[in-house]
Amino acid sequence: MAVLAAVALGAQPRIRGAHIGRNSRDFSASRRLDFLGFTRSGKRLRSSSLGFCKPRGVVAAAASPAPEATDSRYSQKLVLVVGATGGQLAVASLLEKGVEVRALLRNAEKARSLFGDKLQVVVGDTRNPEDFVPSMFEGVTHVLCCTGTTAFPSKRWAGDNTPEQTDWMGVRNLIAAVPKTIQRFVLVSSVGVTKCDQLPWNIMNLFGVLKYKKMGEDFLRSSGLPYTIIRPGRLTDGPYTSYDLNTLLKATSGTRRDVILGQGDTLVGEASRIMVAEACIQAMDLECTCGQTYELNSVQGDGPGADCNKWAKLFVSAGTSTNQV
Length: 325
What we know:
Elements: H1 72-75, E1 78-82, H2 88-96, E2 100-105, H3 108-115, E3 120-123, E4 142-145, H4 163-177, E5 184-188, H5 201-204, H6 209-221, E6 227-232, E7 234-236, H7 245-249, E8 258-262, E9 270-272, H8 273-283, E10 292-299, H9 308-318
Pfam family, one: NAD_binding_10
Domain NAD(P)-binding: 83-259
Organism: Selaginella moellendorffii
């Protein structure tokens, strides 16, 4: 049955909505499900929606081209990307913008084969609390967590890489270790986490993936950290898990580049991995996204691309509706 596919940066279940993947001090420098209903007010929130939220360091003015790599908003960051092998698109986009990236992942050699010496690499496993040493967070301004595993038993569960261990315990350990001085913690979760007792989500949740993601979300909300949670629909485009940087930078979303953002876990549809990665990056600098949870779908259209002002309009428009979790 089609729903018995995996949820992660790898294979995705073809149902409406789904998820987006020892101790070392090595700091070397180194689709066609249409949007089926944003029912709140019957409004479709696209990049052309009205409203605005001022990004940090950006003057509230007309939309501008994508920022250059020398933009101080990017050059002054150090982003710790957790699950960087699965979050390759986010890493590639950050590097292209001139952001310094530190990657926490289990396989350092794979990261270096993909990105060379363009990022710092820290070897660790979020499931092991002792792997979180203070030096890991030295200088870090933002954290992006895109860890995950499959919803149903698969070879990716080897080594106890289950939803409970990865989506709950690993996320909990990371949040508990992050310094309170962090500027923003962005967590990639999934649509449907509040609907575990409803079809088709109860099928997706047979082994607890949605339940454990929701537990991770709730732990972040209660942590006192400034956070933003992005819940993508069923992921499309890719998965991009074994490509070099140049290939990743050429990835496109085809014709489904427009974005719909919602709140309250009401969206049902697909989400481009490329647009999810960009949403996470853009949310880091927007004051209006702090303490907020958003669902994301991709639809036909040109979309916001990397334009920070267009993303700001999207986020603030989504926030005009009742904020439910």
